[in-house]
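Narrative progress, year one. The postdoctoral researcher (J.K.) led the effort to move from monomer predictions toward full complexes, under supervision of the PI. The following entry was the first complex the group processed end to end, covering 395 residues in total.
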Amino acid sequence: MWLPFLGLVFGLALGLLTNIQIPSIYENYLSIAVLAALDTLFGGIRAQLQQVYDDKVFVSGFFFNIVLAAGLAFLGVNLGVDLYLAAIFAFGVRLFQNIAIIRRILLTRLDEKRHKKNKNSIE
Amino acid sequence: MDIGQAYGYCNSSLHESERNDAEALTIRLGGAILKKNMYTRITIVLFIIGLMIAVQYNTIQKPAERDTRDIWAIREELAEEKKRHSTLLADIRSLNDVVGRYEQSEKTNLQSILNETLDRLKQQAGLTAVTGPGVILRVEPAPELVAMGYDIEEISPDLLTQLLNALFKYDAANVAIDGNRIVHTTAIRDINGKTTVNSVPLSSPPFEIYVGTTSFKEAQKMYSSIQASTFIDSFYLDNFNLVIEEPTEYLTIPAFDHPLTNDYLTEGKKGD
């Protein structure tokens, strides 16, 4: 359980310590990629909690979403249409929805646990 | 999954019950491996996410400085650095010279060499009077304006500072304003309406500015440079005439006669 978390911490540390920077023209793409990645991550957590998690979907979704988002942004820049806004909107909405669902599931579980405990104490 | 299939294949010749057991084991094993695989993948994905977030953070926080100089500016900077380089080389040579002499006469006359160094440093700091080629600038009230009844006020410290900067830009070696030697801590400022140099009020115009140079040729160059500059006009705007006298071979510039304050100087570490 702690292994993924360790991966996140390790990635953050590596990025911050090596002080890697990307040229400012690619900043937009990276920000959208980060958003897509976060969206996929929370989607994965939600799926896990709903017990419909599929490894293939998760990993393929992660890479595909990143590439799609960056590609859309690239296309938008070349067409003069701010298509990256569409990606931000879509991912943003989904991020909030996913987090809301996660919250509800966790709340329900907490309630159930409390209920059980109460039942046990009564018995 | 592959391992599970392999197990299944190997066990095909076993008895039914054993096979059932083996299958159960396989499924459990497969499940564990699957779970481990899943965690590894999620870890990799999270690692990538972390890296991306960190890079994005870096890029936003510390945008890489863009070099906006054109070729000309870079060339000028290069010329400046070249000049610095050559002065440093000259410094190194003279210091090496001193070191050589120290080493040569380690026991015989160390004191005289030390004294020599001390004198040289004193001269650099402006603690000794210097005689050499130079130019005298005289600041005097413009006579026609005095005749017209204009008030001649104190010379402004800003104008004097600007003149001084220009003089040093034209390679002045030593400067004294109204007998006050300019050293690295000299302040030119207005104290209670009086323009002061080294905290000594200037005598009301006319007064003289002694500008010492390294050679007579430099003095001539200095003379032409000041003539060509806008300072004569600037002084006239303040009701003064700036008179530039012909360069002379022998000009004595007085020493700095106050104690030198160096509150913020600290001793450097050896080898720095």
